[in-house]
Amino acid sequence: MAQVKENPLLLDAETFARLHTQAHKDTEVKRLAIVASKGTMDMAYPPLILATTAAAMGQEAAIFFTFYGLDVLNKKKLARLKVAPLANPAMPVPVPNIIGAIPGMTAMATWMMGRMMRKQKVPTVPQFLDLSKQLGVRLIACTTTMGIMGIKKEDLVEGVEIQGAAAFLEYASQAQVTLFV
């Protein structure tokens, strides 16, 4: 009968706990890392809500804005974030794609979401950005995307850090929760 060798890669619970604690010793405070890649009004809210909630709970939080997510930090585009009704099945009022393609429907969907948020007393995206900064959430703009899209530091709202993916990945490697939105 062949003898089964013990797998050296398997860890018992005690060893795993010790190694996990050791790996996170630099971050005794819980840490949240979010990648925000979309620049529409409806997709600006989730990372901002999650990050400000984490910060309010005493956790470190950072949002890495890349590609169209940079629109959320862009002073020229921030006030004009839109909600696309086309191919957006999560709209509060379901809109068939053919209707969503009609000119003016994006403006209507954006108006409807803005009205819904005001009615529920949800802060605006600029207010969430201010709250994020007040709570110590790190707002990080991707340098590679800035170069690709011709965005300059002066195009961004105040208080934004500019870093590359490697710097954010270093931060995220010490996070207990990492999300891509």
For this entry, give a set of tags:
alpha/beta, Hypothetical Protein Ychn, Chain: A, 5 strands, 41% helix, 181 residues, 5-stranded parallel beta sheet
Please characterize this protein's 3D structure.
The protein has a domain at 31-81 and 125-180: Hypothetical Protein Ychn, Chain: A (3-Layer(aba) Sandwich). The protein is globular, with a radius of gyration of 21 Å. The protein has helices at 13-23, 41-56, 75-78, 97-100, 105-119, 125-134, 143-149, 165-172; strands spanning 31-36, 60-65, 138-142, 161-163, 177-180. It has eight helices and five strands; from the N terminus they run αβαβααααβαβαβ. By secondary structure, the protein is of the alpha/beta class.
Poorly predicted regions: none
> SSE order, as H and E?
HEHEHHHHEHEHE
CATH class of the domain at 31-81 and 125-180: Alpha Beta
Q: Which range does the strand content fall in?
A: 5-15%
User: How helical, in percent, are the residues?
Assistant: 40-55%
- What would the average pLDDT be, to the nearest integer? 86
Structural class: alpha/beta
What can be said about the biggest beta sheet? Answer: 5 strands, parallel
**Order of strands across the main sheet:** 4-3-2-1-5
Rg over alpha carbons: 21 Å
The shape is globular
Number of strands: 5
